[in-house]
Amino acid sequence: MPAEPAVDERPAAPVPDTYRQTLARLRAAQKPAGRGAPAYPIYVNRRLGRFIAAAAFRAGLTPNQVTAISAAMTFTAILLLALVPPTFLLGVAVTALLAAGYAFDSADGQVARLRGGGSAAGEWLDHVVDAIKSSTLHGAVLITAYRFLVPADQRGWLLVPLGFMAVSAVSFSVFLLNDLLKAARSRRDTTSVIRTGSTPLRSLAGAPTDYGVLVYVFLLLGLPGPFLVVYSLLFLAHLGYLVLALPKWFRDMRSLETPA
């Protein structure tokens, strides 16, 4: 799910007296979850991001600085994954860095709201980082699998991270395109209804397709067999979700068309 847009240049609002008051402001301004949004971003990552955002805001950090911290953590993990032989400790380090980067990714948009709103430049930067992350992470899996995990007579498995890379790129692009078209339509036609909000059942059903779940698969790096199996199952879940969702999203776009 694309992260919340950031802002950089707007002046910060007056800082509340306490950290707790800052958290209260964030809770009050929290956006509703997208329809069918997975459970991890709603119930875990958004809350972690809220604590980070409150601290970052009070420390005077801008949203783009928070985005840069997120990117540094994420791409450090990706480089470690690609370059270092897989072990249990490496898996823990990669997972911790990816999870922390994801939490900071949620925090930048929340800092933006504390500072008065988002900007096009901040949103662009946030989405560019997400686009790079969504592809290079699977590229790193491809590299480490080729170098360390997959025997020469089983190299056909390398098609899995290649496929995962393609599915991630397409999914990310379509998510953004859906949001842009719906937003453009809602500005032209005030009678348009954009359905928002999620339910626990929808959130749990979408859990296998969430980046927050993928992050924790890397705890299995020290166990090549289980890692390859679980990673493959997640790829199938992402692929199946995309194949089933594309017709539905097409119908959604058709419903936005103005009747002749």
Automatic annotation (TrEMBL):
It comes from the Bacteria. The chain crosses the membrane at residues 78-104, 157-181. InterPro entries: CDP-OH_P_trans, CDP-OH_PTrfase_TM_dom, CDP_ALCOHOL_P_TRANSF_CS. It holds the Pfam family CDP-OH_P_transf. PROSITE patterns: CDP_ALCOHOL_P_TRANSF (PS00379). The keyword Transferase applies. The keyword Transferase applies. Belongs to the CDP-alcohol phosphatidyltransferase class-I family. This is CDP-alcohol phosphatidyltransferase family protein. It comes from Amnibacterium soli.
